[in-house]
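Comment thread on ticket #2218

A.B. wrote:
> Attaching the input chain for the structure job we discussed in standup.
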Amino acid sequence: MTGRKWGTLLLAVVLIALIALWWKDNSVRSAVAGETYRYVIGVSQPNLSEPWRVAMNNEIREELGKHPDIRVIFTDAAQSSERQKRDVENLMGYGIDLLIISLDDPVALTPTVSKVYSKIPVIVLGRGVTGYDYSLYVGTDDEMIGRKAGDFAKSILGNSGNVVELQGVKGSPTAEERSRGFQEPLSGTGIRIVQSINADWQRDKAEDLLSDWFSKNNRPDLIFAHNEAMALGAQKAIRSSGLSGVKIIGIDGVHSDDGSLQAAASGGIAGMFTSPTGGKEAIRYAIDILNKEKGIPKKVILRSQKITTGSTGEPLAALPATVRPKAGKDRPITVGFAQVGMESGWRAAHNQSVIDAAKDMGIQLVYENAEQSQEKQIAILRKFIRQKVDVIAFSPKTANGWDEVLREAKNAGIPVILSDRKVDVEDDTLWTAYIGSDFREEGRRAGRWLTETAQPGRNYGIAEIQGTANSAPATGRKTGFEEGIAGDNRFRIVRSVVGDFTKESGKVLMRQLLRETGGKGIDVVYCHNDDMALGAVEAIEEFGLKPGKDIMLISVDATKSALQALIVGKLNFVVECNPLLGPQLMKAVKDLSEGKELPVEIITSEGVFTQAEAKKNISIREY
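C.D. wrote:
> Ran it. Output below, let me know if you need it in another format.
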């Protein structure tokens, strides 16, 4: 055969191979001959035996009905982690553009999710994975739900009683967080958890294990089930065992013929705490991700409501905080924004981001600066209420002390959005949404880096310079850092002092620590923000030591000035806290004006910086 014929044959083989590959990647995009789809989304479920998961798929289908150019492929792993791994591999083989995955066993599936995330976007739905290898998490705050369930248990039992806890899969973050939250309000009471049973989220398993336990033990006063399926299993076990007077508290809450809300209405379950499926939110964000929209958050936390039985026998829920603004076509939406102050470079960037975003989106912004005074900030909020603005947004100085003024705003029908910082109030329907960072996770990331980087066999004394007392960033970053170093005996926090997020306070406090210790015993300084860290750098240099070498410094914010200090070796590690929240805040305002319900928390996407990463990013840093 001549060289030309060989060349022609080789070209034909290559073309056939390319066509085959194209057909494999695109065949799933056609439901019928001649019909193509813009995007194909894979949805992987661990099982469809739970009404909650069926409701999730139904939400996804309903939302996709608005987008005929998108096809979805559903899989059901029938309660097998190995099968779910194969399902995901098959979906990837079909050439999906984005994966939505819900998990029963996050520990087993995390490596699979990480592998997929390296190739296409991944939305984790309902129950989280370990780590950060995903595009977006849509779910609920499981620890908070557990805490609400614990408070409800106290209201039912008083100060004493025995509880059996039906947990999900052992080791899963969801099960651990719901359990930890539930136990917190019970501390110091006579309420005891006499048994914890891992029923793996399954109704039948919960019924069998609980029935067996009942046959060998005294009747408990209350069952706390981590999900709806196990709550319904507990209900069957109680009936089949001939017991009475045992209360059940569950989580999920689905409107279906055999769902827990119907059980609550009939009196079979004392109360349910809803865990929204997030199906419709997942599709909305999936489209934004595929269209490469800006400002995609890292986490979206949906609001949970307590469902109890009313006098009519119908399920009753706490009223949601979302209220539609009253702006009309003849006037723009008006937002009253009460800034906490201008204590740092981070705050200046946050401030400008809000102002610019309001202007870009045609929203009228009424701006006031509280100058680091809570009393002044409360007065500003009351001024906004009198002015009848459509939405109030503010960055609270501290977490406490807001109940009264927020109740006034709710009574006036004005939704309140928290920007950057959270509040601690008894009624969480007094505010509509929080937009900002996960401060606790920021602290964890700082602690994890230290444990992974520090020398083995060496002990480290840590000095912590906190932010403003009782502020959400200070509380979260402190708690998260302690969690990050927990269990590692090399580390001990030898001093923890309280600043106010300003550079001057960081310098003064660091100078004081060095004088008191003579510079000995402090190997690491963990600062709650960049400005205090840069102040600490100056104090260390004044003392005659080298910051970054003689004493390691870890900071949070990742402003340009901190990255510059990181590049020259005066800081060792910086965790990002993104101040550019304006676009997400104004988008939330627009969504409210269109009657959309907001998630309770919108958590921004943030990174971490070593010296090498700072060098790569310093030229494009916006703040």
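A.B. wrote:
> Thanks. Noting for the ticket: The first helix runs from residue 3 to 26.
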